[in-house]
Amino acid sequence: MSEVAKLTIGDQTIELPVVIGTEGEKAIDISVLRQKTGVITLDPGFANTGSCTSAITFMDGEQGILRYRGIPVQELAEKSTFVETAYLLINGDLPTRNQLSRFSELLNEHSLVHEDMHLFFNNFPRSAHPMGILSSMVNALRSFYPTLEGLTEKEEINITLTRLLSKVRTMAAMAYKMSRGHAVVYPRPNLSYCANFLNMMFDSPVKPYKMDEDLLRALNVFWILHADHEQNCSTAAVRLVGSARVNLYAAISAGIAALWGPLHGGANQKVIEMLEMIQENGGDATPFIKKAKDRNDPFRLMGFGHRVYKTYDPRAKIMKEMCDKVLRVLNLHDPLLDIAKKLEEVAVEDPYFKDHNLYPNVDFYSGIVLRAMGIPTNMFTVMFAIGRLPGWIAQWKEGASDPNWKLYRPRQIYIGRTDSRFVPIDERG
């Protein structure tokens, strides 16, 4: 017999089915709750609400587990490439050699951006944040690349997915080049996805970019670690907007806008700004830890804690190791890394941080890696967006293929005025 939960409201008791996932997670299905009782649930921030079932990503916040399609993220970071991981997330399985080759060819084939889009880029203010530009331009892609004729629905979706995955990377590099007043560097068919991005970012007629395999590997790992993370804020935004049956570009544009926030994708930029502030104040992290523990002080340690993880973020461990490796390979000494390590060392031994499950997350070290690679701070969140793109696409695709995908329509508990009369303007005090 299937497990059920019994809910009693007044003198009425109803049974609600318990849904059990493949990893043993349990959820109470309340889809008939309002219909049977007239009552809804209230869950600010949706921390206890499952909005869907999904076969893409599994997280266990207590154990520090993250798996894409069942494969631990540590294995993918060690053995896979970003393109291979993107294929896994979007299509459900690791690609064969032929499938990977064809996928890579499609990414190169669709990497160019329509020349007329340059006019859009040129008309953004130079001070515009790259995330605002990227969100706008992704939405605009629909105008330049409308519905494809003469293809099956599956063929059209596959081309649209690869087109988006490829062009977002190109547009990100374009935005950077144009913000500096430099000529745009076009993608090259003989370079891989990640290599093309680095070349488009940093190549110039004056100083041709020299590809470094260690930096290339670091970029692959960075994007793999950010490729998906279950139903986070931006992914939920993609699913919510997608549930209205908008085109993929509009749904992804919404995800980019959500990711922009400092409590989400913008956190890696905020970590660097925090470390720079500590450096400007002598480099001693102790006073800032004290400030973070003071409830009356608005200061907070960026890069610590997570809504799901109650232990060390598994991605943070990998990023910390990559940080050391990149700086060693480049023979660089970044004083911010010294401050970050000291900050972590003090914080993880402090009872306050232990009791509140405040451990470093992936944002804590990722910004230092990006700095070492030459990525400017205002591009950090864009880098996150490129990495998260396969996850957004996979989540949208999964929802679109579900015949029971309903329009997202949360309810509310109204706490405003009750029925009131209209007061003519002359009578208003």
From TrEMBL:
Presence of the UniProt keyword Phosphoprotein in the record: no
PROSITE patterns membership: CITRATE_SYNTHASE
GO cellular component: cytoplasm
One biological process term in Gene Ontology: tricarboxylic acid cycle
Superkingdom per UniProt: Bacteria
Reaction(s) catalysed (UniProt annotation): oxaloacetate + acetyl-CoA + H2O = citrate + CoA + H(+)
Gene Ontology molecular-function annotations: citrate synthase activity
UniProtKB keywords: Acyltransferase, Transferase, Tricarboxylic acid cycle
Leader peptide range in chain numbering: none
Entry coiled-coil feature ranges: none
Pfam families, alphabetized: Citrate_synt (PF00285)
Gene3D superfamilies in UniProt: 2.20.28.60, Citrate Synthase, domain 1, Cytochrome P450-Terp, domain 2
Pathway: Carbohydrate metabolism; tricarboxylic acid cycle; isocitrate from oxaloacetate: step 1/2
Positions of the catalytic residues: 306, 363
Family: Belongs to the citrate synthase family.
NCBIfam families linked to this entry: cit_synth_I (TIGR01798), PRK05614.1 (NF004126)
Protein's name according to its UniProt entry: Citrate synthase
Lineage, uppermost ranks: Bacteria, Pseudomonadati, Thermodesulfobacteriota, Desulfarculia, Desulfarculales
